[in-house]
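Sequence design from tokenized structure. All designs in this work follow the same two-part layout: the structure record, then the generated sequence. An example of the structure record is given first.
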């Protein structure tokens, strides 16, 4: 049995694969602690995973604005102190980081303590944390075809993003019923990631009647703080009732994606991995202000692999035409689904778990067994 620390907080795109990894390691008899941020979104995401152990650590995003930069430095110093305390207490055999501002402190301190480190980068343009810290890692997991300058090729493994075990494709009819939708009507899901996307929410509001007129039901995840739950009844051109469901947050992504004929989504790596697992075709709208434009790189690869289409946010005014052309084209949707199933053939989670066990084993043999402390 080995002990693992998993730094994965800050966004759903970091936290969800961290949870998937912890579930897999626990199932193999190992002990895990997930290090998360103190943001409300992390607290909301972990509510249903009471079987896992979480510990919040300090951290703040890097910004060059004076007040934000000072806060970053203060939080970074606090993160170093907190990380040292955690490593001394937990005596982990391996520390894994998924990028973001919760990763830097623990990885640097782990290197100082000579603890083995692994990093995972899900995006096709590696983030700042992985680029800067990659040289400290014994293992770096990257998407196929992606490389990081200055990192030993021998330490790189090309794998996808671990997906939580609950994310599995369901019967569309059952999933639609669970969401309160008509099982026999087309469903469009709007999914801006764990925090929603204001531009996509606005597009839905502006095009809702047109979509309903075509007989398309809508389920829009607006994001926390961007509106409450609401069900609207509209009319199709045929006179049939059509539902539009708005929810601020969804903690059952498998049901949400399984209910959809088509998804309009941002292009975060986590959302794309879940689309692939559920074999749900999508039109991706990359967030134009994403760091290093990484969502465009993610979206282009998804499109090249045949999982769906990419539309620039500046062309949202024409998106309703694209949606209607795709959602009623059953042949094209079938091709997209077949390509998504092909993309999901490699079991990234098992590949990573096997590798992590081999990395942690030498440290575990050299660490005396001690009783595990429990969180208050």
């Amino acid at each position: 049995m080995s002990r693992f620390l998993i730094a994965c907080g800050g966004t759903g795109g970091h936290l969800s694969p961290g949870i998937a990894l912890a579930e897999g390691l626990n199932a193999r008899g190992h002990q895990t602690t997930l290090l998360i941020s103190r943001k409300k979104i992390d607290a909301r995401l972990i509510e249903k995973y009471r079987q896992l152990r979480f510990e919040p650590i300090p951290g703040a995003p890097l910004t060059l604005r004076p007040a934000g930069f000072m806060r970053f430095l203060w939080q970074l110093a606090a993160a170093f102190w907190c990380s040292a305390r955690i490593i001394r207490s937990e005596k982990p055999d391996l520390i894994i980081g998924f990028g973001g501002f919760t990763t830097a402190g623990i990885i640097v301190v782990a290197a100082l303590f000579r603890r083995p480190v692994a990093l995972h980068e899900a995006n096709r343009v590696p983030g700042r944390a992985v680029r800067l810290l990659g040289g400290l890692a014994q293992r770096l997991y990257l998407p196929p075809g992606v490389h990081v300058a200055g990192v030993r090729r021998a330490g790189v493994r090309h794998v996808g993003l671990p997906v939580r075990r609950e994310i599995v494709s369901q019967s569309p009819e059952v999933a639609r019923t669970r969401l309160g939708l008509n099982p026999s009507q087309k469903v469009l899901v709007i999914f801006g990631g764990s925090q929603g996307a204001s531009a996509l929410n606005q597009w839905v509001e502006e095009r809702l009647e047109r979509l309903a007129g075509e007989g398309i039901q809508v389920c829009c995840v607006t994001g926390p703080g961007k509106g409450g739950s609401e069900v609207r009844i509209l009319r199709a051109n045929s006179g049939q009732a059509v539902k539009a469901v708005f929810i601020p947050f969804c903690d059952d992504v498998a049901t949400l994606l399984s209910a959809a004929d088509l998804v309009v989504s941002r292009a975060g790596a986590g959302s794309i991995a879940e689309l692939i697992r559920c074999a749900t075709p999508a039109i991706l709208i990359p967030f134009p202000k994403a760091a290093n434009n990484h969502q465009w790189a993610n979206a282009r690869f998804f499109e090249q692999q045949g999982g769906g289409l990419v539309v620039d946010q500046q062309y949202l005014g024409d998106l309703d035409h694209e949606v209607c052309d795709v959602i009623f084209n059953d042949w094209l949707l079938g091709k997209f689904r077949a390509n998504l199933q092909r993309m999901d053939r490699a079991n990234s989670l098992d590949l990573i778990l096997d590798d992590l066990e081999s990395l942690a084993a030498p440290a575990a043999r050299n660490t005396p067994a001690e009783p595990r402390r429990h969180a208050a």
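The two ends are 23 Å apart (CA to CA). We note this feature because it recurs in several other targets discussed in the main text.
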